[in-house]
Specification:
The complex is a heterodimer of chains A (111) and B (113). Chain A has 111 residues and is mainly beta. Chain A has strands at residues 4-7, 10-14, 19-25, 32-37, 43-49, 55-58, 61-65, 71-76, 85-92, 99-101, 105-110. In chain A, the strands form two sheets. In chain A, strands 2, 4, 5, 9, 10 and 11 form a six-stranded mixed sheet that branches. In chain A, strands 1-3-8-7-6 form a five-stranded antiparallel sheet, with no helix packed on it. In chain A, a hairpin with a 5-residue loop joins strand 7 and strand 8. The radius of gyration of chain A is 13 Å and the shape is globular. Chain B is mainly β and 113 residues long. Chain B is 0% helix and 51% strand. Chain B contains no helices and eleven strands. The chains are: A mainly beta (111), B mainly beta (113). At the A-B interface, strand 5, strand 9 and strand 10 of A face strand 4, strand 5 and strand 10 of B.
Chain lengths: 111, 113
């Protein structure tokens, strides 16, 4: 079945360092979503990418959708302690109304 | 606007007991979802609904049942709880299906002894 792989599983960075998480699909995607979950909280929608090669920015966060629409990345510049949490990508399940979530990347920022 | 709410927030069950988790949304969304979250496993879809009176199976439906009698409510039932169902359960809703933002509830932490 369709799989969405996300790497790395964990990342510890010093405050001020950059961070990147990658999401890879076994199939071509129509779109991809990114969510953030703070420790003890629930997933919160960040962004959706639709077009091949699309790049979107939200302050220090940069989201990219691959040219082949099979992969995506989230890059955080100069991490802050408020960036702590788990970042998930979510891709549409083939032929259905549902989304398949990646396993997530847990980010820890050391002050 | 409360968004998506879940009841209860915490629950401890003994093996074999039953319970119902309630999800309610006040955003007039058509689509509702139940996920479970386990360490290292991400979010896995249990069941979902594309409208009032409809339900469908997700990735891990065994041991669970659902009902969507009213558009704003989505119930998740465990008929005979097992320790493997210890997890955090999240409900989510969206206005449309694919291509739309999912709004998540705060979660229910369930422990089955």
């Amino acid at each position: 079945g369709q799989q969405v792989m996300q790497i790395p599983q964990y990342q510890h960075v010093q405050e001020g360092e950059d961070f990147t998480t990658y999401c890879n699909s076994s199939t071509t995607l129509s779109n991809i979503q990114w969510y953030k979950q703070r420790p003890g909280g629930h997933p919160v929608f960040l962004i959706q990418l639709v077009k091949s090669g699309e790049v979107k920015k939200q302050k220090r966060l940069t989201f990219q959708f691959g040219e082949a629409k099979k992969n995506s990345s989230l890059h955080i510049t100069a991490t802050q302690t408020t960036d702590v949490g788990t970042y998930f990508c979510a891709a549409p399940g083939s032929g259905t109304y549902k989304y398949i979530f990646g396993t997530g990347t847990r980010l820890k920022v050391l002050a | 606007n409360a968004g998506v709410t879940q009841t209860p927030k915490f629950r401890v069950l003994k093996t074999g007991q039953s319970m119902t988790l309630l999800c309610a949304q006040d955003m007039n969304h058509e689509y509702m979802y139940w996920y479970r979250q386990d360490p290292g496993m991400g979010l896995r879809l249990i069941h979902y609904s594309v409208g009032e009176g409809t339900t469908a199976k997700g990735e891990v439906p065994d041991g669970y049942n659902v009902s969507r009698l009213k558009k704003q409510n989505f119930l998740l039932g465990l008929e005979s709880a097992a320790p493997s169902q210890t997890s955090v359960y999240f409900c989510a809703s969206s206005y449309k299906g694919r291509g739309d933002t999912q709004y998540f509830g705060p979660g229910t932490r369930l422990t089955v002894l």
